[in-house]
Design brief:
globular
C-alpha cells in the first residue's frame, strides 16, 4: 500500500532498492552507453545514462509508475558491445533490451 522508489546514483555506481538497501554495480559495469551505441529509438540520452526524473523511478501499489517513463542504460566495459537498456512505461511495464552491435533487441 505504499509507493516504492528505486533511486540511481550514477556517480557512485549505486542504486537503492526498497526493502533491500543499496547495491553497487560490479567494477566493470557503469551507467551509460559505450561510444557509438545510440539510445533507444525516440528517446534522448541523458549524460548520466538515466532518463528518469531525478534519477528515480517510483512504482505505485497498483504496479504502475508515477510520472513519465524512462530508461536506465548499463554498460559492461570489459565486454565488446555489452550494453543493456532497462525501460519502464507509465503502466509499469519493464522491458530489457540488449545492443547486439547493430540494433536494440
Amino acid at each position: 500500500g505504499v509507493n516504492e522508489p528505486i533511486r540511481f546514483n550514477p556517480e557512485g555506481r549505486k542504486y537503492l532498492l526498497p526493502g533491500l538497501g543499496e547495491r553497487i554495480l560490479p567494477p566493470q559495469v557503469r551507467f551509460g552507453l559505450k561510444e557509438g551505441v545510440p539510445p533507444l529509438p525516440d528517446t534522448v540520452l541523458p549524460a548520466d545514462g538515466i532518463s528518469f526524473r531525478e534519477n528515480t523511478v517510483t512504482f505505485q501499489p497498483n504496479g504502475t509508475m508515477m510520472g513519465l517513463g524512462g530508461a536506465v542504460y548499463l554498460t559492461n566495459d570489459s565486454v565488446h558491445n555489452e550494453t543493456v537498456a532497462i525501460s519502464v512505461v507509465t503502466t509499469g511495464r519493464v522491458k530489457i533490451r540488449k545492443w547486439n552491435g547493430n540494433e536494440w533487441r
